[in-house]
What we know:
single chain, mainly beta, six-stranded antiparallel sheet, 2 helices
Amino acid sequence: MNALHTAWEKLIEEESRRQKGRTDQDLWRPRLHIAPPAGWLNDPNGLCQYKGIYHAFYQLAYFQPEGGLKFWGHCTSRDLLHWEFQGVPLCPDQPFDCHGAYSGSALIEEDQMYLFYTGNVKLLGEHDYVNTGRESNTVMAVSSDGMRVDTKELLMTNGDYPDDLTRHVRDPKVWKQDGRYYMVLGARTREDEGTVLLFSSEDKKRWNYAHRFRMEKPFGYMWECPDLYVLDGHTVLSISPQGVEQDGLRFANKYQSGTCFLSGDFRVTKALGEFRELDGGFDFYAPQTFLADDGRRIQIGWMGMPDMEKVYRNRTVGRGWQNMLTIPRELSVRDGILCQNPVRELKEWWKEERRIKGAYSGPLEPCCELELTTEGGDVKVVLAGGLVLRYEKAEGIFWMEFTDPLLGGGRDIRGRQVGALRDLRILVDVSGVEVFLNGGQDVFSTRFYPEKDQYHAAIEGDGIEGVLRYREG
């Protein structure tokens, strides 16, 4: 700990005292999802299970709801549903991270928590901050209790990365396999092509470049937040590319997040399969996964989207905070498609339920879940009078559309080709909606901002049956 870290701790403690009591009275604060007590939240970081406790770190600009200098916020949970804010353990307090502790991951080994992240530095002078003027440093922080950072160590600088890259190299994901450590880093080449770098190490400290993953044709100018894991016999590379042009219904957001399957051993193969978006809604970016103690692969994403301030807005900014994370999602592969579903613990959250058969119109609790099956025909669900979720069998497209601009904060419409709609699961959590189609094969996520008396659902469609679950109080 140095003097700068001590100063940050004092400022954070003062801000925490100032915010105390405000969160419970906030109209749009979620009950299930992680949201910052104050300031701006973005990418999930350092997801892990440590000594039986789930840990979720995340990018946090604690003093500015519009974004700013990045720290790591920290929450813990015993059930992936009840999250407790634990403070801001990772601060920009060293020469190699003085302009932000950027995204990264966690590795648990020998009762220690190792946090790998990008230390961001911006130099003074005339720079474009792409090819000059930026330092992207790979850093390892160590914690002996999962709460406080004991030490930091600089592992790699831009001079340790391949020569054809810009200064944009970041977001290390680290894991151990077959007695060796591996790391993937997102990068941007000087030719403005996105790529993922693979490194290996014997001791977590000295890293050797192995090779890179790239598409057969250029696909965006930068790949952020890479993740590589094995799931149901498939090797999956998850990336968040920037600079991909919209193609019909595909790639409609400013930036994308999706996965590719790899053929063969990742240590040898470089070719990637087809990229498939993980979420068709408005608010999903920078997902990260971790392996739980029971063997489940669990993913959490940022329920937001960078650089959209001029298109749509989040109405919580006036309340001093912005953005939240998605519900933790269990991953599986079915019929060659990576599926996402809320973690099974969610069923324990609900205390009441109401059966639905046929058309339905009635009030909703601000935190609730609709689970519906259909006969494969047209379906329409309207939430809060202005968020329309509809499927028209003739065109084979599922739509998420805001007919009330204020409810959506400027969000308009998103759609995805869906061959047939058999079931849908709609999770509402005060100011967020996540929709899971056909057992999680397709997902749509968005923020929305109903007034207190606006929580309502109207459902119509062929052969609709299901249940509304909620938790009063």
